[in-house]
Each structure stands twice: as C-alpha cells, then as structure tokens.
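From the shared-data thread, chain only:
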Amino acid sequence: MLPGFDLRTALACLIAVVAGVAVWMLTHEVDAAAVTVVGGAAAALLASGGEDLAEPAPPSPAPETELESLIEAVSEPLLLVDNNRVQLANAAARTLLGSYIIGEDVRVAIRHPAAADRLARPDGVDARPVDLVGLGALDQRWRLRAATLADGRRLVELRDRTGSHAAEKARVDFVANASHELRTPLASILGFIETLEEAGEDPAVRARFLEIMGGEARRMRRLVDDLISLSRIEAEKYRLPATPVDLGELVEEVRTELVAGGNPRANDLVTEIAAVQPVGGDRAQLSQALHNLLGNAMKYGRAGTPVVVRVQPDGPGMMRLSVRDEGDGIAAEHLPRLTERFYRVDASRSRTLGGTGLGLAIVKHIVERHRGRLDIASQLGVGTTVTVTLPALSSARHATVTEG
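Structure, as tokens:
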C-alpha cells in the first residue's frame, strides 16, 4: 500500500468517481467528468499524505549540548569537571586559565594551592567557598565554589572579587585614617590639659598651651566638617544638579571672600575669565571645590608667585576651569593617588599647613556628581595645574530651568 493510502483515502477516491459519473450523466461531457474525478482523487491523496509531506520536526538538542550552551552563556569562569578532569570550560574560564585546559586535571588547570587543596576533597566534606589571591594577576582575587551534579560531575565556578576587595580595603583604610587623624589632635589636647592642671597659675604658660589646644581643636573641627561634607556629597552623587551657575561670577565671588578673610596669599590670585556659558550645578558644592583648589594652590605655591584661575570654553558644550600655581610641583608617581582620602605627598608639611587630607577627594566627588572630569598635571620645580571640565548648560535647558 502507498504511504498514507488508507480506508479514508479509498472512500474519498470512490466519492470522487461517483461525482464524476454524476457530472457525466447531467452534462454528457466526458472532459468535465474526468476533471471532477481526477481533481477529487488528487485532493484526497494530498490530504492523506500531508503529514508525510510536511517538514520533519527539528531534532531536540542533546542534553550535553544544552549544558555546554548554558555554561558558555555564563559571564564568570565556569568549568565542568569529570573525574577531576576538565570536560567543559566556558570562554571566561579559557581566557583566565588558558585554552588548553580542556582535558587537564582541574588542579593543574587552575594552578593555585588553595584551589588544589579544595578540589582534592570529595564534595560535601567542605563546601565552603575558597578565596584565591594572585590567580591571573598578582592583584586579582577570585572566589572558588564547587557543586556536585546529579551524575557525579562537578561544576566549578570562579567569581572575580577584585573590585569588592578593593572597595572593602578602601573602607577599612578610611576608617583607620580618620581615627588616626582625629586621635592625634585629641591626644595633644588631653596632654596639654593635664599639663595645665600641673602648671599652676603661670599666665604665659596657660596662654601658650591654650593657643596650642585651640589650634588642635580647630584642626579636629575642620576634619569633622570635611568628613560630613564628603558623606553628603557621596549621598547625592546620583542626583544631577541643574541650577545655572556662572563659573566666572563664582570665581570672583570666592576671590573676594578669600581677600576679605585676610589670607595674605589672596592678593596673588589672578583671574582670567573668557565669555562663558553657565553650567548646571550645585553652587555651594562648586564653591567648596573652588575654595579647596585655591586653598591648595596658595598653600603649596611659592610666596609672592601668582595663582592663576582661568575659566574658558573647552570645545562644544563644555566649560573648563583651571587653577595653576608656581610651587615645588609634585612627582609623577604621586599624581594618580592625590584624590585618595588622606593621601599626602608630604604628611608633616600638610599637617603643619592645616590640611586634612580630604580636600582633593572632596573636589573629585563634586566633579563626578556634576558629570565632569578632574585632571592634575605637575612638574617638579615649576608648579601644578588642576583642571576641572564641566558640561555647559544648553540654551534650551537653561531657559527651561530659568523659567521653572
């Protein structure tokens, strides 16, 4: 029997023949009767063979292929291990460990003593993750986890913890540095209080000690104010400020404040203001950043030399503010770390001049909140230039903000 030719097909063909005979009896036209029979029979055959003529369903992917696809889709390094040999490894694992690891003993493939010790134990004995230091690069940190599948094979995952470790180290260092910076003046104050208690009524001694205690207390207050300020700026870093701020006006305003404050170096400030567009910003924070930059330039620049503040356009849609001093300059190896909290090129000199070690860290966070860029260039014996580039407020946006 032909494929797909069953009883229903035979009945349909018979009906086609009967229909053809009926057409011939009514019309006496052989051609019309033949067309009816042939057409009916063909339709029946096509209907019965439809399933056979249809496209075959695609074969289901093999379970092993599906597993390989899943492993390959994971962004972290992942290995499938069978009898301690690497059976599958995704692209991330091959990039980290090398493309040759397929078929290798997993303890040789990962090449780390802590990993070898963990993978040598049967799963279930110790399922805790293992931290690997120096895998891939000396400063990289990975966390290894292993899990047993139903068929006895093991899935080994490596998760990059370098960024998390750096953030945690920064937090620990920050707390330690802040504690040290607060403890030092506090110890001085307590020591002088004890000395005063034993010094009797000598007015000269009391006056000198009280002056020192007052200076240490003000140093603590500056540090606490900077810590609070830094915390507030970080809390607002995802809120883009949009108030129009004219940088030229702001520079002149800060210069006036510094002159009025009696700082002798304020008379060395030289301003060069070009035609500028307003920037979208937080005026108080931008003023604080400018105070910090000018304060550093006046402290570390040589006495009597100019401190030049320049504001000008910097390409389409950007404004540039730069502060240049003529000081001793900073060695190149220190430049990348200047915005770290409490980092000082010369700690003793910075403390003598009243620095908290947070000024440039605060500037950096303010600039980042304004979606700007901070650059520091310096040359030993020549001086230092700090440049802040900020997005200008477009005319349409400026009009909208002003009307609002």
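The longest helix spans residues 162-199.
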